[in-house]
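Entry:
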Amino acid sequence: MLLATWVQAPAAPAREDVAPSAVDVAAAEQAAQSTAPVARQIDEEAERLRQHLAAQIPFVLPARNPFSFSTVSEKPVPKGSEPFSTVPVEKGSDPLVLNPPASPAIVVPLLVGVTEDTVDGVVSRTAVLSMGDDMAIVKIGQPFMRFVVQSISATSVELVDVTSPARTVTTINIR
């Protein structure tokens, strides 16, 4: 019985609505009057921004879209401005290239540092290489980007470019 009474009973006695006093009404009106200039400034600023946005130049679609291939044919190349020219030497033989196209420069990593560790009298070196945002600690024979480490000295590293047919060897000194 006690449990049923407790469950059915309200949590707090009902409160009668009390009308605000004249002092509370006067304080509310004074607060509204003091914030009226700030509210007016906010409304003016909002209207100024609406007018500014309406006066903006409309978006113009760019002529180049990097996400699609162009359907426009390439510009014609004037005679004599080819990147390289060929002259046949003999009938049936390969043509001789007079002006080979310039190959792009090879981007070489930076040598940030060299570490040494001596174990049983044998010096083992590792190189810290950096290229752009990539960084690695490598030993002799390990790859880094398109290179393989050939040798490491106290101040330099020799790298072999494994992507070139000539297997170009590049020496990088520490900076």
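The first helix runs from residue 2 to 8.
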